[in-house]
Design brief:
heteropentamer; A mainly alpha (305); B alpha/beta (272); C alpha/beta (308); D mainly alpha (308); B: 272 residues; alpha/beta; Rossmann fold; 6-stranded mixed β-sheet; 11 helices; globular; D: 308 residues; mainly alpha; MetI-like fold; 73% helix; binds adenosine-5'-triphosphate; binds magnesium ion
Chain lengths: 305, 272, 308, 308, 272
């Protein structure tokens, strides 16, 4: 009697397996979209950059100290833009990482439950404000305040852009770090408290080390955000290609250069147009390196509670 | 006949001999998780240098009770104590609002159900409590860590890898490490919450032995769901049910002649 | 189905075209739709020569390379001057030592060789103070930049690179108004709107007169060489579409009033009439020959147009 | 008995330690204040400039050269339509990808690559997405500078956010539920369809909203693909009176979005436009606030309702 | 004397009377979590309409063994079976690569340690298995759901709130709901993994009663860490230790006269 039942059952099963396979395939394709996106980005950037690097040697690109691709006297020293990007990022991170970490520790270990529930989403709003709004905020609000303390400060400078950027990045750092700290099992904390430790001791000596890998990824994301931020810098940092590591000066960054040119929409094929892809590629490689470093770090310090 | 299960281990044990001095005494202790009353007017005396076991079916409030002693419940909002727990010889009420929970925890230490070593080296794990108490001298630390590890019967196994991560130890070793960590600070009372429930029989046996040894130095209150274990290691046993202390007495008496019908039902496995 | 006039190009011409577009749509009761984008003169021509837009705003005449590109795609165009802009050199109101500037001085400040050399005011003129200059100018992608470099340095796109550049002229206004040592240049309209925050510098023309930018000065032809015409280029193919033609007609009839309204210098009425005639007759091409020229006055422009 | 029994020194020690607790708690509150005060300063600053401009007309008027008549109708409609496309693309893709990675993916290098890739994409600067979109959507696929291009671009931009949120939400479903369903003989897809997706939907929605709140304020990539600035009409309506009642013409329509409109206004010479910009910014921030607020509420409800 | 703990419940139970027919038979079954061999060459026969209990200390592989029967391990990567489990009367090997695990699960159902109702209504919870099997008709569904709930002794308690969320039930009710859910699909064999370990004594008693009732209809394999429970509910008991089957036999025989020393040690509470 079992054999009788078998053949319709078998057919049913084949149909089911087929359907399952098809669905899996569709979902797999959805997951692949992210890979296609990366491939697309790399393809676009590399395609145009290749043409660019046929005309500009990589050595010159990396060592020249001037960046004037749109001028009569053309120079293509990416270091100039990179210095602006790095300086503004360092300023931003100098704000975001300490403040973000302190906030994360405070919210996860110190704050009363209610405050945490309110403060965290409120902070996340900071990440939701359009960056162009921040740009004008930096230019029209923060810079004058800074000038009040330090009158020599030029109207456009990396400092105020960096500070505002830092504030914008705080929630990325604090939110993810806080999640990581909250994921530290309560029994670790209880272990520490049971030894007579205070909150601060528990937080710093037990919770932070245990959540290290999560905190590291928060930092990495913060770095990528800082490096990739565009509009704040375009508005408030003064797009001046200036090889400087002094945050008190105006400077152009890779991203602000890209929007500037993108706004101008130089003719396709001109070397000026291709510079944005070379610059974009540099940026992409930089963030990519950061993320890989973060991935390795996370693998190495993977929590094993 | 394999049926004489619990009594066999009780009968063969030596009786506590020294005169009994109370170490802690809970009286009229109730505890509330928010509106839920998890403990109902408990009274219990724990005698110095004795092992007192708390048994009872799951959810009866054993852990809740144990955690009152070192004010673990203070860590979470909405919890409320009623009644008192007095610590002797000082005769202070551990639950009094004026008493700092940190101070309480510095005197009473706790070992948890699941081993919870810190993500640090073995050495640092044991030294943690000392550092928290302000000990800086490397010499002293080393000495105390070694002594604690020896007391926890772990020294020989880890002496060559004190600076490796504690996570690399086996479950039983981790649990002994946690005991060493608690021991290092010379606690007056040690609280164990089902310390062997996540361990294999061999590790369990080693921990039980350890507890038997430790009671010479320190008073012990232990929660267990394993009646055989309670019978093996404890001098006194308290049986709890639904947040109430149903029966308390010498372990041998309680297991062989429980006064209470509920206790008897539980011990004979009629439920739980 | 939809009648859309697509316009893109210079941000300098944008206010004029936008004003025309707005009024035109209202006049047509929204039956015809007009879009105006900003992607710079160069960018505008790129799209124009690909046939993506009907009209291109240009703050300078079309260049050779762009003519070639358009020719390749078979796009023919009619050049229509729509107004004049007076590039204005501005300084901070607190700056007291600059009374006027000659082209030579401007060149000394802005030429590529000045980079890392002429960093302080006294490097330009020994009588000026020993203070660092803070320079502001439009992005190197803009027609304003091209024109200014051509007029001052003598070569398009030839400029020092160490100045604060922005596509957004308000950002430049902010920069100069906040910095005592600031100096910048941009379109006249931005100066007019920010007179309280900025000071315009009289520019010494070939005749040796120091002239402040103003409507009259431009019409009189004395504000040279920083006055320049701005244009729209209409695709000949698109003119076949009635909506485009109507739009251009509207532009030519109301251009004077509207450009004045948005603080540009309007051409004489005659000029718009001539231009409309060119459209009607389909006179294609440019009167500039694909090179950038500076100091073309209204009068000269009219003469050239007439000859086309 | 050095540590435990010397009560006095213990108390002193605890007091010293607790001082650190206090210091740190103060630092924490201060740090929080920095964040919150910045936000409040920003918001109030914008409100002071912008709120007087907020009236019904501001939402129902098209942009205009007269600051007082200018409104954000085309901008907010554009933003809404772009968001619609973004949601339609990002949600299925993101949820599909998250589902695949959590429920289906075998442990092999392909999965690893996808996973690293998703984290990496989360860190890619938005401007780079703009470049991708310009090359791929605008020119390669020929979508042009349309709502479709912008929607796709922003969808890719928020895809990592949606994927991560989906995975988080799925991970919070206990294995017990999954195993229970499998034990009843459900196939993998049935488990996903009947359990995983419904139970994680609130979490997913939260992620989508947060992603959208980010996308709606994005300027750089939309500028790169060339959103228009002056557009005084609405895209064709998606709903028609006659069958088939739905029209997709709007997808290819030119458009502008809120941040672009704001960007445009900030670069106008007239100060009155800066107020418009502030008003538009205020609306934008309110919008993101509302979206985030909704997400928070959702997260709160989710935590309250389903206690695993 | 309260010491005759296990045997008392065994002796009073009626013996399985019907002739024994094998339902499933594991032979040479080994199981690997990746490289870790959790089960070592097990052989076991489960007889039709009997309750077979698996006992053994924590970590001995009881759950692992149970989960082999309905191929739960297939859900996770890196797991590997060796040997076979034959299902009678068809005599197919459940572990054969050609056998679809979904088909296996459609015939064998499982109840877990912690009640795990879906966050759906009570009705939908019970109906889910039927829906998965393609049942659409509302009439049939209602009938079957009611029957299953009755069999699980839950009908009277929930019949007025079938469309409320299952989460609102108490723990014991939830567990009975999970049993009803499993019953609704008319399984040939039911697998229980410590079904009462998270329940209170009263709920436990009701589940045990239920199991005793159910065996008239269905064959049952149950994992428990509670020897008394095994003694109370099962006809056959298997004692496992460290992944091996140490002893298997009629429950009465195994508890009263274990053949193996290890089994005896475990039953008498010498460890575990
Ligand atoms: N954080 C909490 N909030 C509310 N109720 C709680 C909390 N923790 C425990 N309870 C409840 O308090 C009662 C006692 O719990 P407790 O954990 O003390 O039991 P237990 O005897 O230790 O059980 P087990 O043997 O399972 O560990 C239980 O009913 C439990 O549901
Ligand atoms: N997913 C897994 N991966 C690797 N090892 C596992 C896994 N699950 C269980 N094990 C190991 O397999 C062995 C048997 O585990 P199992 O859960 O079957 O024990 P058990 O007898 O059910 O114990 P308990 O009474 O605690 O439920 C244990 O050593 C356990 O550590
Ligand atoms: Mg407990
Ligand atoms: Mg188990």
């Amino acid at each position: 009697m079992f054999t009788q039942a078998q053949s319709p059952r078998l057919a049913q099963r084949r149909a089911r397996v087929l359907k399952e396979r098809a669905i899996e395939m569709v979902l797999f394709l959805a997951a692949l979209v992210s890979v296609f996106t990366t491939v697309g980005i790399v393809y676009i950037l590399v395609k145009e950059s290749v043409v660019f690097f046929q005309q500009v040697s990589i050595v010159a690109f990396l060592t020249d100290t001037q960046w004037t691709p749109l001028f009569d006297d053309q120079h293509f020293g990416i270091m100039v833009l990179l210095s602006g990007t790095l300086t503004s990022s360092v300023v931003a991170l100098a704000i975001a990482i300490p403040l973000g970490t302190i906030i994360a520790i405070y919210l996860s270990e110190f704050a009363p439950f209610k405050l945490r529930e309110i403060a965290k989403p409120f902070l996340e709003l900071l990440a939701g404000v359009p960056t162009i709004v921040y740009g004008f905020f930096a230019l029209l609000f923060v810079t004058p305040i800074l000038q009040w303390f330090y009158p020599e400060l030029p109207g456009f400078n990396l400092l105020s852009a960096g500070i505002v950027m830092g504030v914008m990045i705080i929630p990325y750092v604090s939110s993810i770090s806080e999640d990581a700290m909250r994921a530290v099992p309560m029994n670790l904390r209880e272990g520490s408290y049971a030894m007579g430790a205070t909150r601060f001791q528990t937080a710093v000596k037990v919770v932070v080390p245990a959540a290290f890998s999560g905190i590291a990824s928060a930092y990495i994301l913060g770095i990528s955000r800082a490096v990739g931020e565009t509009m704040i810098l375009a508005v408030a940092a003064g797009m001046q290609p200036n090889l400087t590591f002094n945050p008190l000066e105006p400077a152009a960054t890779i991203t602000s250069y890209i929007v500037q040119v993108a706004l101008g929409d130089l003719p396709h094929g001109s070397i000026g147009y291709q510079t944005i892809f070379a610059a974009g590629l540099t940026l992409m490689l930089f963030t990519f390196a950061c993320n890989i470093a973060g991935h390795v770090l996370r693998k190495r310090f993977r929590e094993t509670y | 006949m394999a049926t004489v299960s619990v009594a066999s281990s009780v009968e063969s044990r030596p009786q506590p001999s020294a005169p009994l001095v109370p170490k802690v005494k809970a009286s009229g202790l109730s505890f509330y998780y928010g509106a839920f009353r998890a403990l109902k007017e408990l009274d219990l005396v724990v005698h110095e240098n004795c092992v007192t076991a708390l048994i009872g079916p799951s959810g009866c409030g054993k852990s809740t009770f144990l955690r009152c002693f070192n004010r673990m419940h203070d860590l979470y909002p909405g919890n409320r104590y009623e009644g008192e727990i007095r610590l002797y010889p000082d005769d202070i009420n551990l639950l009094a609002p004026g008493v700092d929970p940190i101070e309480v925890r510095m005197r009473l230490s706790m070992v948890f159900q699941k081993p919870n070593p810190f993500p640090k080296s073995i050495f640092e794990n044991v030294a943690y409590g000392l550092r928290v108490r302000g000990e800086r001298s490397g010499r002293t630390l080393e000495g105390k860590v070694e002594a604690a590890l020896r007391d926890a019967a772990l020294w020989s196994e880890v002496k060559d890898r004190l600076h490796q991560l504690a996570f690399n130890l086996s479950g039983g070793q981790q649990q002994r490490l946690c005991i060493a960590r608690a021991l290092a600070t010379d606690p007056e009372l040690m609280l164990f919450d089902e310390p062997t429930s996540s361990l294999d029989p061999i590790a369990t046996a080693s921990i039980e032995e350890l507890i038997a040894d430790l009671k010479k130095k320190v008073t012990i209150l232990i929660v267990t769901h394993n009646m055989q274990q309670a019978a093996r290691v404890s001098d006194f046993t308290a049986y709890m049910y639904l947040g109430q202390l149903i029966e308390f007495g010498r372990t041998d008496e309680l297991f062989i002649k429980p006064k209470n019908k509920q206790t008897e039902d539980y011990i004979t496995g009629r439920f739980g | 189905a939809q009648q859309i006039v697509k316009i893109d190009g210079s941000s300098t011409v944008y206010p004029v075209t936008e004003a025309v577009a707005e009024d035109f749509q209202k006049a047509k009761k929204n039956a015809i739709k007009v879009t105006v984008g900003i992607s710079g003169t160069g960018g505008g021509f790129k799209k124009f020569c690909r046939g993506e837009t009907d009209i291109s705003n240009a703050s300078r005449p079309i260049l050779k390379s762009e003519m070639v590109e358009c020719a390749k795609a078979g796009i023919e165009y009619i050049e229509l001057p729509v107004a004049f802009d007076a590039l204005t050199v501005v300084i901070n109101p607190k700056n007291t030592f600059i009374k006027q500037l000659t082209v030579a001085e401007l060149k000394k400040i802005w030429e590529p060789g000045a980079q890392n050399k002429v960093m302080k005011w006294k490097d330009v003129n020994a009588q000026w103070p020993d203070q660092p200059m803070k320079l502001f100018g439009p992005g190197a992608d803009s027609g304003t930049f091209d024109y200014f470099t051509e007029a001052v340095v003598g070569k398009s796109k030839s400029s020092r690179g160490d100045f604060t550049a922005s596509e957004d002229d308000n950002v430049l206004v902010q920069g100069v108004s906040r910095d005592v040592n600031g100096l910048g240049y941009f379109g006249y309209a931005y100066y007019v709107e920010n007179k309280d925050k900025l000071k315009a510098v009289p520019i010494v023309n070939e005749k040796g007169q120091a002239v402040l930018p103003s409507l009259d000065a431009v019409i009189a032809g004395t504000y040279t060489p920083l006055a320049r015409p701005i244009f729209i280029y209409v695709s000949a193919k698109s003119l076949a579409k009635p909506e485009v033609k109507e739009f251009v007609q509207y532009y030519m009839t109301h251009g004077a009033k509207l450009s004045k309204e948005v603080k540009y210098v309007p051409l004489p009425d005659k000029a718009y009439a001539v231009s409309w005639e060119h459209v009607m007759k389909g006179k294609k091409g440019t009167v500039f020959g694909g090179t950038a020229e500076v100091g073309v006055t209204i009068e000269e422009l009219l003469k050239r147009e007439a000859k086309l | 008995m050095p540590y435990a029994r010397d009560l006095k020194s213990i108390r002193r020690l605890i007091a010293a330690h607790k001082r650190w607790d206090l210091v740190f708690a103060c630092c924490g509150v201060l740090a929080l204040m920095v964040g919150l005060l910045t936000f409040i300063a920003l918001f109030v600053d914008m409100a002071i400039d912008g709120v007087p401009r907020l009236n019904w007309d501001f939402f129902t008027n098209f942009p205009s050269r007269h600051a007082a008549q200018a409104g954000i109708l085309s901008a907010w409609v554009g933003s809404c339509l772009v968001m619609l496309v973004t949601a339609f693309v990002a949600v299925p893709l993101g949820v599909g990808a998250g589902l695949y990675l959590e429920e289906y993916a075998p442990k092999n290098w392909v999965t690893d690559v996808i996973e690293i890739n998703v984290t990496n994409l989360a860190g890619v600067p938005s401007i780079v997405y703009g470049l991708l979109a310009l090359g791929v959507f605008v020119y390669q696929f020929g979508f042009g500078q349309s709502i479709l291009s912008a929607g796709f671009t922003l969808a890719l931009l928020i895809l990592p956010v949606v994927i991560v949120a989906t995975r988080e939400a799925i991970r919070s479903i206990p294995v017990g539920i999954r195993e229970a369903a499998y034990a009843l003989g459900a196939t993998q897809w049935q488990v996903c369809k009947d359990h995983i997706i419904p139970y994680s939907s609130a979490g997913i929605l939260t992620g989508v909203i947060i992603g959208m709140a980010r996308a709606i304020g994005e300027t750089a990539p939309v500028i790169t693909i060339g959103a228009l600035t002056f557009i005084a009409f609405l895209p064709p309506s998606p709903i028609k009176a006659e069958p088939p009642f739905l029209s997709f013409e709007w997808l290819t329509s030119p458009f502008t979005v809120m941040p672009i409109q704001m960007f445009n206004w900030t670069s106008r010479p007239e100060a009155a436009f800066l107020q418009n910009a502030a008003a538009a910014g205020f609306v934008l921030v309110l919008l993101t606030l509302a979206m985030n607020g909704f997400a928070i509420w959702l997260r709160y409800r989710l935590r309250k309702n389903i206690k695993w």
